[in-house]
Structures are given as C-alpha cells and as structure tokens.
Write a structure and sequence with these properties.
alpha/beta, glycerate kinase, domain 1, Rossmann fold, six-stranded parallel beta sheet, 18 helices, 39% helix, globular, glycerate kinase activity, MOFRL
C-alpha cells in the first residue's frame, strides 16, 4: 500500500521510520472494507444478518445499491461478496480516477472535492433507484467520506455551477467538514435524510465509513434536525454570506415551511424501515494503530480521535507533546507511539502553493523537531490523497529541516505559502499510498525513542 518505502527509510531514524510506516499500513488494512463489511454483514442460508438484524432473502424482491464517496467501490465490492446474490440495480459514485467495474452496478468517477456533472448524474440515478424501490425491496446505501461532493442533487433553483462555487468558497475558507456539510445538505434533494424518505417503503440499510469527527452515522439517509436558517447563520458567522452565489442565497432564504427547503425531521426518519451500521470511524483507526504499536513493543497512547484546527497550529501543538514525552516521559514513557485522528484544515489564500492538511502538518512538525534525534512523525490522509495532490502525507524527523536547508530550500517560506508538497518531495519525506479503499480522515503518529 505505502509506496517508495526505500526512499522514505534510507535517512533519519531509519528504524523509527520503518516502524511508523508498518503501523500505518497494518492499521489501514484492518479498517479496509474487506474486513469491516465482513464483520458486520454475513449470509446464513436464506437469511442475511446485518449487525444482528436478520432479513429473509426469500421475501425480498430485489436488492439495490447506492454508493458514494472515496473507497465506496471497496465497500460495495465487500457487500456483494457477503450477499452472494445478484444486485438488481445500483449506482456508485467513486472519486474520479479510482473507479473500477463491479458486476450489476454502474460505477462512475465523480468530482471531489468540487461537484461535477458526473456527480449530478449519479444523484439523478440515486433518486431513480429510490423512487422505484417497493415495500419488498432491500436497498443498501454505502457511504464513505467524499459522498457529499460526489453524489449531488441540487434543487432546480440551484444550478450545479452555483453549488460548485459555494463548495469552493467553503473549502478555501478552511471550514471544518461538519460546517461545510451543514450548508450542503440544505442545497440538496437527497441529503439530510431526504434519500431515506424517498426510499420508503423499501427497507434501507446504510453502511457508513464515518469521516466526521463526531463519529456518528451520517449521509443522505440521516436526518440531523438543522434548518436552512442554521446554514444561513453559519455562512454569516464565517463572513461568507456575501461571497455565496445569488441562487444559493435566494434558495436558503425561502420560507422554512416550504417543502423544497425543509428536510424531514429526525422523528420522521426514525419511523422509516431503516438500519444504520457504522463500519469504521476515527476511533476504530486510532485503536488499531495503538494496538499495532503495542505489538512492536512500544508504549501506546491515543491523544485524541477528533483533532481539528489549522494544520500548522495543530502540528506545533502535537510536536510539543512529543517533545514533552522525549524529555520527561510524559504523557507516556518512552519508547512510545502517540496516536491521534480527526481532520485538520488549511485556510487557503489565492496565491497558495501546492499541498494539503497532512503535508502542512508534517512540515510544521519538522520545523519544531529540527535537530532532535528522538522524535519521528507521520501524518497521513487515509484515503491516499491530501488536498488536491497525489501525496498522502509526510514522514518527518529531526533531519528533515537540516537536509532541506543543505539543498537550499527554506521550509518556513514554503510553510508560510501553504506550499508543503515541494519541500517534502525534495527531502524524500513525501508519503505516497495510491488508493487505499477507505477514508477515515487523518492518522497522525509520533514515535518517541529514549
């Protein structure tokens, strides 16, 4: 999974680098859908058992699948293996470039993080499957991180270009993903529980890989009780209201009683024939990493599974915790591995360079660790991409900054310009994984030696 390991481990603390890469790779394997789906879905003759709930396959007319998000193909593929039954209809919106064919299911590559025409067509197909589903049908909704951008269905009053521009504005402002989704779900005909409402009277089973800090089920079949007014307030609070396209502002300001605006209530969704199963979340990933660290003989400590904030600031803060461990054997005795999950963000100006949250975190950490021999750090976007790059993250230690300066690269200048990819590549500290088949936000590991 992790590529170019030789070039990542031929400098610095080579053993620490190898161990961090091994911990990360084994953790990602444990949370891959081929393992998590099998743990929750199994067939027993004519019975399908989903997280303890039983479905009689002899009484089910058809089984359909709606999937979206980075790694959603892997979820649906694992589901098909567990079902051992033909799927009557299906649409999966995978990230463009990572799509691959599945039997009986149409797989498309749609835009991320900015929605595109392919995602719009996938949204139309999802509505079509939902509207055709009957009371004797079973529909699996497989959701992973990225689904909000890749499966879109804006109301007729909001053109795709307006939705795309709104998404771009929210991302550039560095908003946490939960705030971005709070706005997007009120610009959709399927989000905020609307898809669950359309699926009724069919039975809907949502399998979700949670990539939000809250760790709870989310997606187009889940209601949250928020209103369009809440979305307006969030945009105004962040100073973004005036920057949002006119069709979006007009739509969000429509009366709350309008059926085209108000999402179904949690009580309404709760009364529908539906089941929700969390396949994995940040806690699952961090616990796996801690166990893998312990298996290598390290003391392990999970600092948090829900870290948020500006990447460079979080990098400075967590690096100081690692230095504390190296100096005073607290909050964990050395040798130890400090684990954290969650999702940091970068506020991106118009003149920003190339990078992503994990790369910026890693470069920030490298500056804090310059010339320290006892701390090595890995920051990884678990879907295999970090920002709009093909780099997944960075692996840094006390040698990263000195090596860069020897090559005439000023890491602080690049950090200030949000241009973290260039120095990490120059230092051979950029981490590549390719497609991982999952998406559980970020994984950050600090290995502290004695």
């Amino acid at each position: 999974m992790i590529e170019r390991t030789e070039s990542l481990t031929d400098h610095g603390n080579e053993r620490a680098r190898r161990d961090l890469l091994a911990i990360a790779e084994r953790s990602l394997e444990r949370v891959h859908p081929s393992n998590t789906v099998a743990a929750h879905v199994r067939r027993d003759g004519d019975r399908l058992v989903v997280d303890g709930e039983e479905y009689d396959l002899t009484s089910i007319d058809g089984v359909s699948v709606i999937g979206a998000g980075k790694g959603s193909v892997a979820v649906v593929e694992a589901l098909q293996a567990a079902l051992d039954r033909d799927v009557s209809a299906g649409i999966v919106a995978e990230k463009a470039g990572q799509e691959r064919p599945l039997p009986g299911v149409d797989v498309v590559g749609s835009g991320h993080p900015i929605p595109d025409e392919t995602g719009l067509e996938a949204g139309r197909r999802a509505r079509e499957i939902a509207d055709r589903a009957g009371s004797d049908d079973l529909v699996f909704v497989c959701i992973t991180g990225g689904a909000s951008a890749q499966l879109v269905s804006p109301p007729p009053a909001v053109p795709l270009v307006a939705l795309a521009e709104t998404t771009d504005r929210l991302l550039r402002a560095g908003l946490p993903i939960d705030e971005i989704n709070a706005v997007r779900k009120h610009l959709s005909r399927i989000k905020g529980g609307r898809l669950a409402e359309r699926l009724a009277p069919a039975t809907a089973v949502t399998l979700v890989v949670v990539d939000e800090v809250a760790g709870e089920p989310w997606g187009p079949t889940v209601a949250d009780g928020s209103t369009a007014a809440d979305a307006v307030d969030a945009l105004k609070r962040r100073g973004l209201w005036a920057e949002i396209p006119d069709p979006v502002r007009t739509y969000l300001r429509r009366p709350e009683g309008s059926a085209s605006v108000a999402p179904p209530s949690p009580d309404r969704i709760g009364a529908l024939p539906a089941q929700y199963v969390v396949l994995a979340n940040a806690a699952t990933l961090c616990e796996a990493a801690a166990e893998e660290a312990a298996a290598l003989g390290y003391d392990d400590l999970i600092l948090s599974t829900g870290v948020e904030g500006e990447s460079r600031d979080v990098g400075t803060a967590l690096a100081s915790v690692a230095v504390e461990a190296a100096t005073y054997d607290r909050p964990a005795p050395t040798p130890c591995v400090l684990v954290s999950g969650g999702e940091t963000t970068v506020t991106v100006p118009d003149d920003a360079g190339e990078g992503g949250p994990n790369q910026e975190f890693a470069l920030s950490v490298a500056l804090e660790l310059a010339d320290r021999e006892s701390v090595t750090a890995l920051a990884l976007g678990t879907d295999g991409t970090d920002g709009p790059t093909d780099v997944a993250g960075g692996l840094v230690d006390g040698t990263t900054v000195p090596r860069l300066r020897e090559r005439g690269v000023d890491p602080f200048t690049h950090l200030r310009r949000h241009d973290s990819s260039v120095p990490l590549r120059r230092a051979n500290d950029a981490v590549y994984t390719g497609e991982t088949g999952t998406n559980l936000m970020d994984l950050r590991l600090f290995l502290v030696t004695e």
